[in-house]
Batch of 4 targets.
Target 1
Amino acid sequence: MRKNLFNVGALFRGFSTTFSYAFKKKPTIEYPSVKKQHAPRFHGLHELRRYDDGKERCIGCELCSISCPANAITVIGAENTPEDRRSPGERYAARYEIDELRCIFCGLCEEACPTDAIVLTPRFEMADYRRGAFVYAKDRLLVPPEAGVGTAPDERPNGIPADLGSVARAKDTVDIAAGYEATNRGHILKDQRRGLAALRSPSPSTEQGDA
């Protein structure tokens, strides 16, 4: 009898816990139509900024690549010319790539940059079915000239990353169909594939000799 009463009591205690949650505020949100506020120092997708006059801030010094603990950044610098001046300095980044799959979003690249060129934005929605789409080349990282210069990392209110100009809207329209093929590593792989295909396919002289 005592055992049965204990079981009934345990049953009521269990149901009381269940019913108590039925009247509490639900912790879930209707994502993606509703999104929570980011943490004050949230690190999301990278972005290359410009100056007020539209010139690129990046001077191709490669400090971000050197400071990256995950070796996720590749920078190839080039000299500015009087006819085509990309940045105020002597050099600019001819190629700039970030492998977002390797990146650990530590923000060391942002701290190492002497011109505040590379920043980590609050944007994080970059899901894709292709691995190559996560290698972001310069054309996908660089802020469009008409998007504005945005806010420097140290000037954001309460340290909360702001929407850098209208970049979030502009980047949503970027075509990423090229994916990995549009990057420096992608071009290297394509050249290697062409070389293998040439080795595997018989040359015309060989076919004529066999005939």
Note: The chain is about 30% helix and 10% strand.
Target 2
Amino acid sequence: MPYNEKKRESNRRWDRANLDRLSVAFPAGSKDAIQDAAERAGKSVNRFIIDAVMEAVKPLEEAGTEDAET
């Protein structure tokens, strides 16, 4: 099935409804290291970055929950 404008717009609607987008800039020279690390981990670069960020966020969220209870 050819990828046409109708399909493209359908994908855009799904993305808007289901994804949050952030633009992140890394220091020059970081791209290759990130791509290599993602490949070694068997992940896409997107999934690798999401997993790394969420791993850092989780303990902070848990600490915030504990602070709210006391």
Note: Residues 22-69 form one domain.
Target 3
Amino acid sequence: MAVRVDAWVWAVRLAKTRSQATAAVKAGHVRVNDAPAKPAQPVHIGDVVRVRLHSFEKIYRVTGLATKRGSATEAATLYEDLTPPPPPKVERAAPVIRDRGAGRPTKRDRREIDRLRGRDSHG
């Protein structure tokens, strides 16, 4: 048995509406087994579906098929999430705060700031 990829994306609640799911597939945001998908392309159990949503990509393995949209708990049984965890956030150094009205840093001050930030200003 197989289901259309746009119907599966909608049934597992990756898109709010069926037309949004179809538009995402047409726009190239959905790939099945690393190949660009078309809305009517069939999805089988065991296929790997990659969906790009809001600047990040999710990877799912199809474990079940549905043509009707069910509850979120039912939808969660239709796939296995293979998405790797996001990389840890890199802490940035606090910005250098200068006294109001102090003006531009002098050459010596700028070199000191660059040294503290780990940049090599010359040489």
Note: The chain has a mean pLDDT of 89.
Target 4
Amino acid sequence: MISYEAILKKMEEKAGEARLQKDERKIRETVEAIKTLCELILEDKKGEIPSGTAPGGERPVQTTVYHQEKLETDDGANGDSLLDF
């Protein structure tokens, strides 16, 4: 769980970064990050936010499937190396 205090500390860090920026685009990006942190606090109902949860819903589950079948080619290559022609 992430506490309000941790989020507020991060907001202060980002505000400091924004003050030091000269590029308007970088300032806007930093302020957008602060806005997102504000939304986290405002959307929270209990005072603490689960650390793995994004605002607006659950995180999608990613699954990776590995197939270990050898690729059969019929192109006349003479070896398994990428450098074989």
Note: Residues 24-43 form the longest helix (20 residues).
